[in-house]
Amino acid sequence: MTQLDEAASLETLIRATVPRYTSYPTAPHFSAEVGADSYGGFLDQVAAEDGPVSLYVHIPFCHAICHYCGCTTKASRRYAPIEAYVEVLRSEIAMVAAQIGRRTVSHIHWGGGTPNLLSTAAFEAIVGDFHRLFAIGSDTEHAIELDPRHLGEGRARFLAGIGVNRASLGVQDFDPAVQAAIGRIQPAETVAAAVEQLRGAGISSLSFDLIYGLPEQSVASVRRTVETAIALAPDRISLFGYAHVPWFRVNQKLIDASKLPGSNLRLELERTAHGAIETAGYVPIGIDHFARHDDAMAVALSKRTLRRNFQGYTTDRADTLIGFGASSIGRTPAGYAQNVTDTGNWRERIVNGRFATERGRLLTPEDRLRADVIEQILCFFDADLTVIATRHNADPAVFSADLEKLTPLVRAGWVVADGGHVSIVRHGAELARLVASAFDAYLGTGGRHSVAV
Ligand SMILES: C[S@@+](CC[C@H](N)C(=O)[O-])C[C@H]1O[C@@H](n2cnc3c(N)ncnc32)[C@H](O)[C@@H]1O
Ligand code: SF4
Questions:
Q1: 12 alpha carbon, distance to own chain's centre
Q2: Is 175 in contact with 229 (CB distance < 8 Å)?
């Protein structure tokens, strides 16, 4: 086996079996043990503690669904359903605020779906609620996911006016053949115009989402995509591996699976993109992010304050993330809580004055301990088990069986496990996920891992 074959089979194995750990325990291990009542209890606990909170708003609507999309969203040609959704969202925000009080907010994140589908009136109403019900300051990070194809004239200035100071743009791939194959025609000029509009409005912190592993991609085309992206000088880049799960996301049946790159090519595509981004001077962050040297995320990496959450990597250090909207996931010190996915069901619960939590996870002390180890590995590619165990008043011996699982990787020279310090020496996203999974007490105990988006 060549080195590439070996790495490709490792990648295939890991993709099939190992989560990306945007939470621990991962979403497939959430259950009905957490519902509306327990979420109320989670929030009571938040109310009793100090510290900032972060807010996530999910907008599950798009103009049309891209073939490859794995997000929880649906197409809406009419605005009426979105307007109705916003009304319920405002009730949900008021319910949470009534329970936790006027808290300082460290981050606001609008995700989706396509949040820029909201009308200016809807944005103003929700942001108005945030200001009325929470303490939002000039240092609150306020980020939004934007579809560059639908950034109308004057929109960037409007968003800057309501306090948005960071935007991530869905770029995916610039190659016309790839764009045709994934059902998303988006010329480079469209992205360049969006970038210009956002920067002109003062939203200077920009991130691009790119995807490798798409149909019709070649090493040369991916290289060109990365070069085109870098010419626009985003502050951050996310490089996702395409997750093809057509049994779970029926829209992906529109992707011709015979055109998907095989595992060797897929790995080469990742390496090509990764190498080109790094050569352009970006700092690799964890398993799939990059940032300019002076960006807050690169600084957080060097200071070891980087965190991982449902949005991927973050500089946000708040212990509580409140999720608003259908399917949104929140995290409080007590545990995770996810809203019901169906918007009708979510609406019904909220209008009846109940939280729409459908599933979640109460965290045990051992969950917290393991979550800490897994987060350290995915952020920094190493973890000091003794220090982490001490932080959680635990005995480092609890990790003995986990360390044994790493023996083949240690023998291969890919991982060093020495005196309770685990360190990945052959960097690679797939390896970091595999090492993290050695500390996952639930892996293989039912539930399928979350798709790689
Ligand atoms: C909510 S979208 C971004 C905002 C906006 N909806 C757009 O597409 O421009 C989140 C990102 O998830 C990524 N994504 C979606 N489906 C994916 C999949 N199946 N595999 C990997 N990444 C995916 C894309 O890079 C996309 O930009
Ligand atoms: S990639 Fe973005 S625009 Fe396309 S369907 Fe998914 S959420 Fe909507």
A1: 21
A2: no
Looking at the structure, tell me whether residues 306 and 421 fall in a common domain: no
How many Cα atoms within 13 Å fall on the side-chain side of residue 339? Answer: 30
pLDDT in tens, 378-393: 999 999 999 999 999 9
Ligand nearest to the CA of 451: 1
Is 353 inside any structural domain?
no
Asked if 280 and 406 sit in the same domain, the reply is no
Specify whether 199 is located in the same domain as 294. yes
Instruction: Give the residues across from 323 on adjacent strands.
Output: 56
Task: Please state the domain count of the chain.
Answer: 2
Structural domain including 382 reads 364-441
Residue having the nearest C-alpha atom to atom 7 of ligand 2: 113
Quick one: 75 and 189 in the same domain? yes
Query: For residue 243, which atom of ligand 1 is closest to its CA?
Result: 20
Ligand 2 contact, 65 CB (< 6 A): yes
Task: Give the Cα separation of 206 and 232 in Å (integer).
Answer: 10
Predicted local distance difference test score (pLDDT) of residue 429: 80
Nearest ligand 1 atom, CA 184: 8
Token pair belonging to 81:
């359903």
Tell whether 397 and 309 lie within a shared domain: no
Strands (E), 213-352: 236-241, 283-285, 289-291, 307-309, 312-314, 320-324, 329-332, 335-339
The verdict on the CB of residue 209 being under 6 Å from ligand 2 is no
Q: How many CA atoms lie within 13 A of 85 on its CB side?
A: 26
User: What is the band of 287 on the pLDDT scale with cuts at 50, 70, 90?
Assistant: very high
Q: Which two tokens stand for residue 287?
A: 């398993």
Residue 12 lies in a domain: no
- 25 is a domain residue: yes
Query: CA distances (Å), 283 to each of 117, 242, 258, 272, 290, in order?
Result: 32, 22, 34, 15, 5
CATH number for 383: 1.10.10.920
Any ligand 2 atom below 6 A from CB of 112: yes
From the CA of 113, give the closest atom in ligand 2: 7
Q: Which residue has the tokens 């059902």?
A: 183
Among the residues of 55-154, which ranges form H helices?
80-100, 120-133
Instruction: Identify the pLDDT of residue 426.
Output: 79
Ligand nearest to the Cα of 65, by number = 2
pLDDT tens readout for residues 263-272: 899 999 999 9
Nearest ligand to the CA of 66 is 2
Claim to verify: residue 287 and residue 389 sit in the same structural domain: no
Residues in contact with ligand 1 by the CB-under-6-Å rule are 62, 68-71, 111-114, 145, 147, 170, 172, 209, 211, 240, 242-243, 452-453
